[in-house]
Please model this.
Amino acid sequence: MAEILLTNDDGVHSPGILILAEALSRLGRVTAVAPDRERSATSQSLTLHDPIRCEAVADGRYSVSGTPTDCVILAIHHLLPARPDLVVSGINRGPNLGKDIGYSGTVAGAVEGANHDIPSFAISLAAWSEFRFEPAAQFAASLAEKILEAPLPQGSILNVNVPPTFKGVRITCQGKRNIRNLIVESKDPRGRKYFWLDQDLNLPGTEENPASDYLAVAEGYVSLTPLRIDRTNYDLAELMANWPASLFKEAIPLTQ
Model:
């Protein structure tokens, strides 16, 4: 029986993780270990300056006062009876595309699984209203079955974005769409300034790679973006090899 670990950044009571757990239950034993509240945009942060509290809220479901990364580490090293065969993070309410991948707590949950050499993927529902998680959950179950049969290479994850309705699946690259950060300034009842951070994704004149995750979702396709955990820029390393020798004490060729 497969051991499957679920996490997310929307919280342990999010309908996305509950529906996902039900869909994956036909493949093995499912344990959900997720934050006790929404932890969106936490990336791969760890809780280091406060204690982490964990509570069983149902059979096979744990609430953790930490980030998605905390949840995966706690599950693997303390809560689960056996090492998981698969880590799935989601289903996120809203997309995780392009440059937002770096901020995403959902993607970070899968990254932490891969850091432990466990096949992992993140899945998001690319919608902004009327969240229907069932089709995405069924797709996740099919994908999980495939990965359990043929695990992903170590150091890799898949970032999956599922439109509300879809006509197919595309293998995509991470989009490079420009994002304008918006800072909204206001005052509280005592006259003190505060700020809200927001983004404008719909910038005019933005060119997009035809194989990007953005375009796949916009055209009604599930986007499967393979990501590497190794962030080394090997192309840049080759260029740096031509820098003056005086900059280096020792030059060791890099291999992928």
